[in-house]
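Just scan this pair:

***
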Amino acid sequence: MSEPAFPDRVTLNWLKKHVPMQFWCWLFGIFISLFLGGIYVGQLNSIRELIGQKTQESQDIKTDLKTDLRLQFFGDRRFPQEVSSDNVASWFAYLSPSLSITPKDARGNTVAGGIETPPNWVIFVALDKPTKFRQAIVTFSNPEVMPVIDVHTANSRIIAMSTRGQVPAGMLTIKTINVSE
């Protein structure tokens, strides 16, 4: 099969005769996808703020909104219970059990070099109203027995944290330090 000879000038009529319909459908689909993708990306709050447009959410962010969550832990695998909350839409806690790896030689004898991770909790908090704060603080009713707590994400809408060990029985409090404090 020989290739069609290209004319001196490519016209719409020539393209209609020599380019298969499948290609036109594909090209139309690409244009529509790019157009709709551009509309979607243009509506994202982060993009609108990047180009300097104020979004309704960024105008509604409070700097003096009290935000805290108090959870009762039981020192075991039970899900904690909410004692009180301010500006919390929902929260979720997940227990990751301990993990132990013990290497053995070919005869089944234990060899040095195993690892062990303690159980740890991961806690996600979704805020009811966006709030601007300087820091998310986690405290415990008995700090001497509390494992290290890492706050991984904290922004105007969510707070995510994890512990480096089992949470003993007691009260865990998550709160924010507002910009105005």
Notes: Residues 12-43 form one domain.
